[in-house]
Amino acid sequence: MTTPAHRPPPDVRVHRQPGDGWVECACGHRHWGLNGAAGLLLWRSGPAGTEIVLQHRALWSHHGGTWGLPGGAITDGESPRAGAVREAAEEAGLPTAAVRLRADRTLVHPDWSYTTVLAEAVAPVQPAVTDPESLEVRWAGLEELDHLELLPAFADALPELRTMLRRLVLVVDAANVVGSRPDGWWRDRRGATARLRDHLAHLAREGVAASAVGLPGTSWLPDVVLVTEGAARGVPAVDGVSVVSADGSGDDALVTVVRRLMGDPANDVVVTTADRELVARVEDLGARAVGPRVVRH
């Protein structure tokens, strides 16, 4: 019989929902979340460098007393991104409106998966303990992580996650991308550009594969800047896609946009074009370039 002194602390988790439960995985370990689990890595640029929100886990929890990310089980029918945001709101009081999703990284086991969703704080955020699953929740500088006892899985993922604390900005050469496919675009250049814009808005919402843009992790949700010229000028912006209409040379306008964006070290600027001369110009500024296929609808 288990004595009181050796009985594990009670599970006082309050957010009981479909999806809660342990999975006995073929990897030899058990994991929390019948549908998998997800956590939110929220970052911001602080006065002394990048800071992230950390959760000091309650002693009764799995690996209690360690530091990790707010997160938990994904409920039935919920996406990992939605689950991470919901769990962060429940456990750390992080307001959804202040969170801009930037990327994700999924660790896949034989019978379970864990998705780390990386997000930027785009408004002032003061994290707080909002349920019994945390001892403390606070902003921490990256240099502090070397002096804290981290949740083992978080410690294992941290080297790659550190490289993902940035935002992807796609700068799209509209004329080059539209012209890369012979689908009759020349009959309605403006309409073809509008269709490209709408597809880019979908990519901004749903994400692009990390491998397609040469980045770590699984997928990235980019900020998108569409540069138009000539007959396509005046195509309006939509949510997720800003539009720059060139008064003259589209290439010159795109280079000006890239130069401005490169002034923020948190931006990873990727230009989509097959124009070799333009590629050389933006690479001279420190940006990278990929072909039109990455964003073509």
From TrEMBL:
Gene3D superfamilies for the chain: Nucleoside Triphosphate Pyrophosphohydrolase (3.90.79.10)
Pfam family, one: NUDIX
Residue ranges of domain Nudix hydrolase in the record: 33-165
Keyword vocabulary terms for this entry: Hydrolase
SUPFAM superfamilies: Nudix (SSF55811)
Organism (species): Georgenia soli
UniProt keyword annotation of tRNA processing present: no
InterPro entries: NUDIX_hydrolase-like_dom_sf (IPR015797), NUDIX_hydrolase_CS (IPR020084), NUDIX_hydrolase_dom (IPR000086)
GO molecular function, one term: hydrolase activity
Cofactor: Mg(2+)
Name of the protein: ADP-ribose pyrophosphatase YjhB (NUDIX family)
